[in-house]
Write a structure and sequence with these properties.
The chain is an alpha/beta fold. It has 16 helices and 13 strands. It has two domains: 2-71 and 113-234 and 403-419, Glycogen Phosphorylase B (Rossmann fold); 238-400, Glycogen Phosphorylase B (Rossmann fold, 3-Layer(aba) Sandwich). The chain has helices spanning 20-29, 72-79, 89-92, 100-111, 122-136, 149-161, 186-202, 211-220, 267-278, 293-301, 316-325, 342-349, 361-370, 383-388, 396-399, 404-419, and strands at residues 2-8, 34-41, 62-66, 140-145, 165-169, 206-208, 228-230, 252-257, 283-288, 308-312, 328-332, 353-356, 373-376. The mean pLDDT is 89.
Length: 420
């Protein structure tokens, strides 16, 4: 059986949602004739932990770990947090925080760590990767980013041992959505673009998790051509089998799962919920994950604090239960080239989905084809969603194509072609 090294910064027990694609693709790819080997970081000190995900790691998969320099410890010191205190992703780049220490830390992150704040992992990861090759003799390398610094690690190993490299882009690289509104120097941008181009020139294939991102990269780098492939983020069918559903009897619950940032604030939605509740409605808002200061302030300004619940981080299966138990599911598909990972789990629940995005045609098409919900522009009146939500019920036959068991099989075919 051929061997493939997966390089992923996020791995159990990290609670980062980014672990789900590599974890479950790795779990199933052995059926395609590829034995996976994993290289990951020794410790993810940024995110909450979800130890329940450790049981999903296949027993026959060798997992190697390398130490990383963590600049977020410096960030904690700058803003006065304890070294063992978890950080909140939506707060670390919040534009609502005008404090000098925060603004300085954001500038450092955007300009001095290229391509990203995880670049400190590069030296030890390359060293460990070379040791793994001598022991495991893998035949190909797959890297999952962000952080996109993992692609540089994989490129170095690919060139050192003359192996095919397949980078997977969960998000765009040099112009990812959360860079909006932040200053990056001309030198930083030039260096970042150089790194991105060098990875794509070297790779055997490049995998993008949306059609829009693939098209965007093909416009930017015409040399990609047929090397560019699309494998969606997907969901895990096994996590929905036998999942518990607890629908509230009278109140309606609008749930958002994952991180939500200042630039994703659906202010018209908060106003509509306030109006409906003032007229006898019983809509409660629930957040799983992190909520930015700007979003919290907007909810408070609309008098919604009493009907808003911030549950924070939850283990994955508990989050699935919350999704299934909701009346409506909220997702902000702000980046036109990106489909939020939670969207695929939302689709599988069958719960009506309200998506926001000013120009995300791919998300709108996906919702329409599955009869799962609607996508609104941020300036639109959300009343139309509440008035038609009863008509949305996702077609499972249209959704099951996104099961990660099928996605793993497609990645196996890409690796076969790259290897041959």
């Amino acid at each position: 059986m051929k061997r493939v090294l997966f390089i992923t910064y996020y791995w159990p027990p990290s609670g980062k949602p980014s672990i789900h694609w590599p974890l479950f693709v790795i779990k199933h790819i052995g059926k395609s004739g590829w034995q996976p080997v994993v290289l990951t970081v020794e410790e993810d000190t940024f995110n909450e932990q979800d130890r329940s995900m450790l049981k999903e790691v296949p027993g026959d998969v060798a997992v190697y770990k390398a130490k990383a320099f963590e600049p977020f410890n410096l960030y904690r010191a700058l803003i006065g947090k304890k070294q063992d205190e978890p950080l909140v992703a939506s707060e670390t780049i919040s534009s609502a925080n005008k404090g000098l220490a925060h603004r300085l830390s954001v500038w450092i992150r955007m300009n001095l760590f290229v391509p990203d704040a995880r670049i400190g992992w590069y030296p030890s990861a390359v060293k460990k990767g070379k040791e793994i090759y001598l022991e495991e003799k893998f035949d190909a390398v797959v890297s999952i980013g962000p952080p996109h610094s993992v692609h540089l690690i994989a490129k170095t190993l690919s060139q050192t041992f003359n192996l095919p490299h397949v980078p997977v882009f969960i998000d765009p690289w040099t112009d990812i959505a959360y860079y909006r509104g932040f200053s990056r120097s001309r030198l930083t941008l030039r260096l970042d673009n150089y790194f991105e181009k060098s990875v794509l020139q070297n790779c055997a294939n490049a995998v993008f998790v949306t059609r829009a991102m693939e098209q965007d990269y093909n416009r930017k780098y015409p040399f990609l051509g047929e090397k560019a492939k699309v494998l969606y983020w997907g969901y895990n069918e096994e996590n929905f089998i036998g999942a518990e559903i607890k629908k509230p009897e009278r109140e309606k619950i609008l749930l958002h799962a994952g991180n939500i940032f200042d630039y994703q604030n659906p202010e018209n939605l908060w106003r509509e919920i306030r109006k409906r509740n003032e007229n006898g409605g019983q809509i409660k808002i629930k957040f799983i994950g992190t909520v930015s200061p700007g979003i919290r302030a907007s909810l408070a300004a609309n008098g919604l604090d009493a009907v808003t619940e911030y549950k924070g981080f939850l283990p994955y299966n508990e989050a699935i239960t919350e999704m299934l138990s909701a009346s409506y599911l909220l997702v902000c598909a702000t980046e036109s080239r990106h489909l939020p990972g939670k969207l695929f789990e939302y689709l599988r629940t069958g719960v009506p989905i309200l998506a926001y995005g000013d120009d995300n045609d791919e998300a709108a098409s996906m919702l329409r084809e599955a009869n799962a919900g609607m996508l609104l522009r941020y300036k639109d009146d959300p009343a139309v969603f509440f008035e038609t939500a009863h008509s949305f019920k996702a077609d499972n036959s249209a959704v099951k194509q996104y099961d990660r068991a099928q996605i793993a099989e497609k990645l196996g075919n890409i690796l076969d072609n790259a290897f041959n």
